[in-house]
Amino acid sequence: MKIAIDLQAAQTPSSRQRGIGRASLALVQSMVRFSRNHDIHIVLNEAYADVQLSLRMALAPLPADRFHWFNAPTNPEFGVLGLTQIGERLRERAIAKVDADLVHVCSLFEGLSDAARTSIGHVPDLVQPLTSATLYDLIPLLRPDPYLVNPDVRSWYYRKVASLKRAGLLLAISDYARTEAIDALELDPERIVSISCGADPIFKPVDWQPGEQEALRATYALTRPYVMYTGGDDERKNLKGLIAGWAAVPAELRTRHHLLIVCRLSDVRRLELQQYASSLGMGPDELVLPGAFVPDQDLRSLYAACALFVFPSLHEGFGLPVLEAMLCGAPVIAADTSSLPEVLGRPDALFDPKRTESIRDAIANTLSDPAKLASLREHGLIQSRKFSWDISADRALDAFEMAYAREQFEASTRVVVPADNRRLAVMLGTPVADSLLTPLVEGLRSRHEVELVGDYPAGRPLADRFDVRSPAWADAHASRYVRTLHLMGTDDTPTAMADAVARRPGPVVLQSLGDPALNKPDFEALFRAHGWRASRLVKKQGLASAAAILPLTLPQLSGASALFAADNTLHQQLVTWFGARAAAAVPVLPLVGVDAVLDALEPRPALVGPAAEVWRPNHFYVDITMLARHDLRTGIQRVVRSVLAALPEQLPAGWILAPVCAHGLHGYVHADALLADWLDLPLPDSIRTREGQPVVPAADDQFLGLDWVPQLTVDGQAHLDAWRAKGVRVAFVVYDLLPVLAPQFFPAHVTALSAEWLSVIGSRADGLVAISNAVADELRAWYAAHPAAVNKKQPAIGWFHLGADLAASLPTTEADPAALASLDGLAAGKTVLSVGTIEPRKGHDEALASFERLWADGVDVNWVVIGQPGWQTEALSAKLREHSQSGRRLLWLENASDAVLAEAYRRADLLLVASQGEGFGLPLIEGARQGLPLLVRDIPVFREVAGDHAAYFGSGQEGAALPDLTRALAHWVKHADAPASTGLAAQSWAASTRELISLVLDQRWQGLPAAGAAQQQGQQAQAPQE
């Protein structure tokens, strides 16, 4: 079965922290965990977006597309009742859109003073699915005073009761609640099932550590053993009855104990109870009233440590505190009313809550009998095993299955509607193969009177057995048909078929994708379906040619109630062009059979808005904020540019690259025009005009934090939460952890911000992608040392290696003639190149000192430095600019374009990388690609990247002594014997980007099972090359 569950009870402020909200969530969690292969969907209220992410996490592993939201108006001009009724109708229509076999409402009695909207059967034109609801109690109906004194509350409550009576099934939380509802509402007993309740797993016996009980007593001002109550404070809870019963307990017993009442109390109510106790002769410290919220952990400890737990309620639907207390090992006595006897399961532990002497005797006799106390503790631990949310979920699923089977049986025995009211028009495309048509029509006739509409001449197999009508005749007699099925022939176009579906709604069976050459050129439609692939084709071949190549079958036919593929070959074409996820919604007719078409022909509930959602590919959102604001030409910006250039071609079919920028209060905004300008690609006007507008993502989209913008990420964490709540998967690229691992090289504010950024992404990302194995290991170690930064569940961590082809990195500007001239002006001798931002960790100061020694010794060697000045290097920057060898032996190019960088690589004789810490070491790969020998500092990440293809200086590996930088440089100038770097595996940016995509979309995290959503859905299929 497909089961839709309304879980607003776990969203609303009035319920989510109370028993109903927590019980609803716990029951659904167990249903999801033991689903019996039922397809479970969750319906939530968009008004409470703040808890959507926490609910999605609580209900893992339900995928994102199993969560659905509805919006209800909040415009005050509608009035309270108007808002409620409109919201109820919108909710019912939104639930109908899920097309479930059964809908379960966790709590109908919501929305009195908040934005929740619940109802059953309030939209007359909807075909209502079988609907179930949880029944907690009918206490306000049976005890209207004081609950229903207010006429507005009374009206609201009676409307909910009316909905309750329209439910096809009710799940009562106790046998008593079931019996009470059967009697009060005159329900068919078959329609209501008792599923009982469970308690939160936190409630269990306490393994006391030294000093814990003393600390607990001190917190709650308890100086001696105590008798305890917890629960609500409304009249039926009988708090004054409990206090009166306690006051009647013999003084010698009473004065050795406190009476602890744990519940929320206003100051006025607290004073009232204290005065009442005093009037009965109780001492000032006998009654303990914390009055405020008590955390669950403390409540568990209070249960476990109490001398006796007393529950004197006059009327309950279940009596959860009784179960919680038993689970914690407390001895429990309770009122002999409503559901409490079945929960407690101990007749000799019951009392009459309306009689003071009965309460008195029960407390006094139990407290003074150690054997009975021990017996009650043991009994409670055994009795409580009969209750759990897993047991309740099992009973609920049993009830769902039985109710659904009963409904199906009743439907099968109903009188069949006369054939005239089941007439089906089968609209024939051009042409339609008899091998498809004949078995299909034979199957359809089991429920319908079939007429063929289209060109179907005499002599074909079905011509003498079915009426054949012309399209014109069928149009003139449109009211004759109550169902329509479209068959798209091999010569039909999706555009024409879409027009036909608009005139006659119904499902479509596809024999082909249609001939794109017959499409009207529409750049916007092509871009929305195929993204940057469409832009490349338009630039390369023109709009008309692009329209003739790229199919628009799925977006054009999104108005059909269902789509079917005639064979596997066509289905594979859908996978090729639109991705496996989209193709999965178009089943292969021979595989699913005619029954699937018959089901698709059945009337579907009315939807909110259009008849169907427009087909939409998955969006791959890439954060390029810093690159868009100001390309600093750092290594990170080079990575962002390079990956961005490769992504449009490397993303699998069904995915579209969508660049975004972080924008404060607006969250993330579109940045397509920036990418189009960088790539020199055309962009539809409608896409260009949305530049800077907020992005509205959808479930199963992907966000990748490719750029490093820590402050904006920290400031925008609420937007990430909102995206994840909608089902967007989130990943970040981590370039290094140097600010937190080597803070001596960074300003204090950068270190602090980096730690905060790591905490934000650690607690919100589904996966983190490091740019080397070394960084991945550092990341795991940092989170292991900072567990609070991952919010209970550490994200998956993987790594990939960067590319090295500068020409593929959206290179910045042409070569500057002045920069090239300065390279020409270097003195004779060998040239050493260093590439990287001028920062303390990069080792430029050490390198400069080494070159100064060599120059002083008369060694002919030049040093070219390419990189912008960074932080904490003012003195070094000034020294480089003003050096006596500047322009002759020393050349610092502060703002070199990628073209100048490429020329510097070509002219150099050696690449020097002296950095004391890196995430990867991109210049190593770029230098090796040019065949440059490499002289690098001996740190783990450089060993990982360069291996045996570099000469090393500095600290040795495994005790091997290595020369310092000056000796290493002098040796190379004299002998030129550094290992050849040509064997170093340097991959292209296309290959590097494919690695990144495989990690993020297929979730092929190193060391973890490769079981990601994209992999499962086959989204790795690539669109064909044009």
From TrEMBL:
Transmembrane segments: none
GO molecular function: glycosyltransferase activity
GO annotation, biological process: lipopolysaccharide biosynthetic process
InterPro entries in alphabetical order: Glyco_trans_1
Domain of life: Bacteria
Glycosyl transferase family domain sequence ranges: 830-950
Presence of keyword Transferase: yes
Key words, A-Z: Transferase
Keyword Transferase: yes
PANTHER family xrefs: GLYCOSYLTRANSFERASE WBBK-RELATED
Name of the protein: Glycosyltransferase family 4 protein
Species of provenance: Pigmentiphaga aceris
